[in-house]
Design brief:
2 domains; Phosphorylase Kinase, domain 1
């Protein structure tokens, strides 16, 4: 395993296994009938991976996903176990590195759509609205301001890009073209239902979930929830008591890193700059606060 000088896990290495598929954050090892997902401490912004990591970030992503899988236990998902003792024998020598930041999951066939749901107008949705008065081809009424709560939660999908490429916002009609009308309707329904239920729960914890993205796959002919769920990487979390319509709220997610990169005029193309120590430390604090606030537990 390769760790940063600050203790962050940058890259996993399991010599007994074939080279994994490395995403922006996760290393995915193919065990044939299952996959080993390792949440590293890498962080990406604008689809660029930063050269240094965020300590404990991977553990927050893993643990918060497990929390939501349990919360939405009636929704089929890809989790087999997060208990390292139940992993194949070949992985036991790596248990110290895997505990808290890994899970064994079903080897599902991912659907090529990022299922984004928005309850508030922010980020790329706000930029789209300013130019077209719509988001992902979905017309919206006149008069919205930045960070305003939408009249209803909306499904605004994206095409999932390969590592290094930018995800592309697409219309619902394009989703139908990609995966068919039946699956498209199912993904839209599941996405809005999950987001709505999670948002209602989060508000009881003084957190606004402004938007989030889900991913789904097909396993044994069934569409199931895969990847991470409602984490600070895949969602915008705002402290509800600090929210003011018309202003960019403070966040408990990686928007803090995006804002820093914007402040130094990063061109949003690799190679990404190294993050200063104070930005790294503050980002760790935000991720840990998000986990504690939503679950009531310390990591």
């Amino acid at each position: 395993m390769i760790y940063d000088k600050n203790g962050a896990l940058i890259k996993s290495e399991i010599k007994q296994l074939s080279e994994p598929k490395r995403g922006k954050v996760r290393d995915i090892y193919d065990l044939n009938d299952s996959l080993l997902l390792i949440a590293t401490d890498r962080i990406s912004a604008f689809d660029c991976v930063m050269p240094n990591g965020i300590p404990d970030k991977g553990k927050v992503l893993n643990s918060l996903s497990l929390f939501w899988f349990d919360y939405f236990s009636s929704i089929p998902n890809h989790l087999i176990t997060e208990n390292v003792e139940e992993y194949p024998d070949i992985l036991q020598n790596y248990s110290a590195d895997l505990i808290g930041r890994s899970m064994l999951v079903k080897n599902a066939d991912p659907l090529p759509v990022e299922c984004v749901c928005r309850g508030y107008l922010i980020g790329s949705g706000w930029k789209d609205y300013q130019q077209t008065k719509s988001v992902c081809g979905l017309p919206l009424r006149e008069g919205y301001t930045v960070a305003e709560k939408l009249d209803g939660n909306i499904f605004t999908p994206a095409f999932k890009a390969e590592l290094g490429d930018h995800d592309e916002n697409i219309s619902y009609a394009q989703v139908i073209e990609l995966i068919g009308a039946e699956k498209a309707a199912l993904l839209k329904e599941k996405t809005i239902d999950l987001y709505t239920a999670a948002s209602e729960y989060a508000l009881t914890k003084n957190v606004i979930i402004a938007d989030t993205k889900f991913e789904f796959g097909v396993y044994d002919g069934e569409v199931i929830l895969i990847d991470e769920v409602l984490t600070p990487d895949s969602s915008r979390f705002w402290p509800a008591d600090l929210y003011v319509k018309g202003k960019n709220p403070p966040s408990l997610d990686k928007q803090f890193v995006r804002d820093y990169l914007e402040s130094i005029s990063f061109n949003k193309c690799p190679p990404a700059p190294e993050l200063p120590d104070d930005i790294v430390e503050k980002t760790t604090e935000k991720y840990l606060e998000a986990y504690l606030t939503l679950t009531g537990k310390s990591l």
